[in-house]
Amino acid sequence: MHPHLKRLSQCADAPHRLIIGLMSGTSLDGLDVALCRLTGCGNQTQCELLAFETLAYSQDEKATILSVFSKAEVSLQQLTLVNAWLGRLHGEMVNSCLAKWQVDAQTVDCIASHGQTIFHCPKHQHGLAQFGHATLQIGDADHLAVTTGITTLSDFRQKHIAVGGEGAPLAIYGDHLLFSDATEHRVLLNLGGIANLTLLPANGALESVLCSDLGPANTMIDAYVRTHLALPYDKDGALARAGSVHQELLAALCNHDFCHRALPKSTGPEVFNLALLAQAQAQTNTTLLSHQDVVSTLTEFSAWLVAEAISELALQRPNLSVYASGGGASNPELVARIIARLDKRIHFTTTSQLGVNPDAKEAILFALLANESLCVPRQGEASVLNVAMGKISFPS
Questions:
Q1: pLDDT above 60 (res 382)
Q2: With the C-alpha atoms ordered 280, 28, 141, 360, is the resulting torsion angle positive or negative?
Q3: pLDDT at position 380
């Protein structure tokens, strides 16, 4: 047996695994790196976060990613180059974390890399009868594995599509494993570039779990302030708080077809972007709005989308508890506007209350997916995955 296969087999049969989860979301803030110790699998999974770091992209790095990000047409040469470059960059970032944490790469069983989504295209979006759902993540895992010397699992979303899903969101599996509760109805809300949620009914099996994208959380706000104000994001919601919501513009944004599609559904910045904003502003004659008013309206749009979905789920569960994560959970203005639209019986907090760093949650979830794919179930354990996700790249 090849040494890499032998080690993979030993890892799968070990009582626990040391896995690094990597997440780079549509907000393009940087790479989240979570070092996790996973014990068991399925409903017996135990996850301990040993170390966590977010490594911000430099302006040049972000610009390179943006050159191929969420565009219907890109240079094939540029896409090819960035795919390999990003894999190496993520590998170098992992190496810097391991050095900082004083962790020997040889002790790490594998890396679980989400990669960078550059185009998400479910069928309801492209409308082409001959094609199904599609999504594309870059950051080649072979380059990542060779750079770090660590076996890497990647490209999780392709298998989800291959077996009939839309490729997003994948949080359903990790949320079910980590956060299901016997007595409390829970919503795990991720406020990243795109807002998504997982509904975990009390004492519910995986089949009862609902997981869906909702629409933009930060992506339109970030794109606007990046383009017009040369800022990476609206820090603490200060711009939104200084502005006023323009109700006609808000109504035009809320009228988008995706906002009224039934859950579950998936989307991305391919739909919710500055072109959509420009169209809505043209319709409502609001092209001369101040930057603060535009950001305030975009923030209200995100809050409305989230609150509408949660309120619908709470009709059958009035004492629902919502646990937020992602960059938007640190935006007090966005959070306040969501809460203002919710029934007072709904409890809103962050995943910190469940013992999980809100910033690390998404990276942890991909470590969990890798663990489910690698773990050999023992007595009393059963994988929650119907099919193993993740392509395997060996370091040599």
A1: no
A2: negative
A3: 58
Q: Mind listing the pLDDT tens digit for each residue in 40-81?
A: 888 888 999 999 999 999 999 999 999 999 999 999 999 999
Task: Give residue for tokens 């594995």.
Answer: 145
Reply yes or no on whether the pLDDT at 97 is more than 80. yes
pLDDT at 378 > cutoff 80: no
Whole-number Å distance between alpha carbons of 123 and 317: 31
Say if residues 217 and 192 touch (Cβ distance below 8 Å). Answer: yes
> How many residues are there in the chain?
396
At 262 the three-state DSSP class reads coil
Q: Which residues neighbour 161 within 8 Å (Cβ) at sequence distance 6 or greater?
A: 132, 133, 134, 135, 167
Are 19 and 112 a contacting pair, CB within 8 Å? yes
For the question of whether the overall pTM of this predicted structure is more than 0.70, the answer is yes
SS3 393: strand
Distance of CA 270 to CAs 77, 219, 381, Å?
21, 10, 39
pLDDT at 218 exceeding the cut of 90: yes
3-168+360-393 and 171-354 in the same fold: yes
Q: Which of 31-35, 91-95, 207-211, 277-281 has the lowest mean pLDDT?
A: 207-211
Cβ contacts of 385 within 8 Å, gap of 6 or more: 173, 369, 372, 373
CATH 3.30.420.40 fits 171-354, yes or no: yes
Nearest CA to 290 among 357, 353, 327, 244? Answer: 244
* pLDDT greater than 80 at residue 150: yes
Strand order in the sheet with 347-350: 210-216, 194-200, 186-191, 321-325, 347-350
Q: Is 228 left (phi over 0), alpha (psi -120 to 50) or beta?
A: alpha
Alpha helices in 270-323 (DSSP H): 274-284, 291-314
For the chain, which residues make up each domain, given as ranges?
3-168+360-393, 171-354
Q: 166: closest CA among 263, 277, 40, 303?
A: 263
The second-level CATH assignment, the architecture, of 3-168+360-393 is 2-Layer Sandwich (3.30)
